[in-house]
Amino acid sequence: MKKAIITAAITGAIHTPSMSPYLPVTPEQIADEAIKVHEEGGAVAHIHVRDPNTGYPTADQDAYREIAVEVKKRCDIILCFTTGGRLGEPVGKRVKVVSSLKPEMASLNAGSLNFGLFHVVDKIKKWKYHWEKEYLEGTEDVIFPNTFKTMREYLEIIYANNTKPEFEIYDAGMINNVAFLIEEGYVRKPVYLQFVMGILGGIPATPQNLIFLVESARTTIGEFEFSVCAAGKAQLSLCTQSLILGGHARVGLEDNLHIDKGILAKSNAEQVAKIIKIAKELGFEPATPNEARKILNLKGLGNVNF
Predict the structure, then answer these.
(1) Which architecture, in CATH terms, is 3-303?
(2) What pTM was estimated for this model as a whole?
(3) Which secondary structure element, helix H or strand E, spans residue 250, and what is its range?
(4) Which end of the chain is more exposed for a tag (fewer CB within 10 A), N or C?
């Protein structure tokens, strides 16, 4: 059976505490969620951090380390740390986690885009914290910056720490960006692409667009591993399509707060269990963390700095 790498994006920097009481915000909660994901069969946990008192997205290095140490102590799941951070995070702070923790894997956003969250403000009736409404409304006038210079500098830091970059592809032009970085010698093949679909400002989450992204990458890059995540209600359908197309799948509360229509997911592990059930029905087996390490050619848990 083909092995499918199942990732859970634990908390992200998109959703706010008012949207779901189950969104993990403290280091302890985030670590516990990552461990539950492992127990359900997930191989990778994608990690953002938040202010434990307000849920505000941050790049607090102590929080990253606290999560990493606790998770490593209790299981062998792969931790993929964000270099995206929150919207508006200073670029220099975003990559610091790589040089600090030397993780097996880190995300690398493959281009700049408008990243809109402002359109969800009217759906929220009551705010838990004062920062949430302003944070979301502010994205009407925010560009998520990931320039060629930034990508080159991040790649130098990532490879200096023997970390695997996971390229976040929000739109088709970002495939060309990765191809250019490969051609110029900044990126080592084989690459791992995460197609991020359904963000306002990026490519819409449709089956046709996913096929287009995969075929475009095959034409432009050649051989690669890929995974898919989709914002909101398209999460499970496009993750399923990814498996059928030969890819992997990312679920999690960063991308979708629900387990079914109108029903909030109580944990990331619920979503992991559901996509694994679907995968098995289709003849796929979830990769263990060590199997995922082999597929992605990672350096191993013994070579991190936590």
Answers:
(1) Alpha-Beta Barrel (3.20)
(2) 0.97
(3) strand 248-251
(4) N
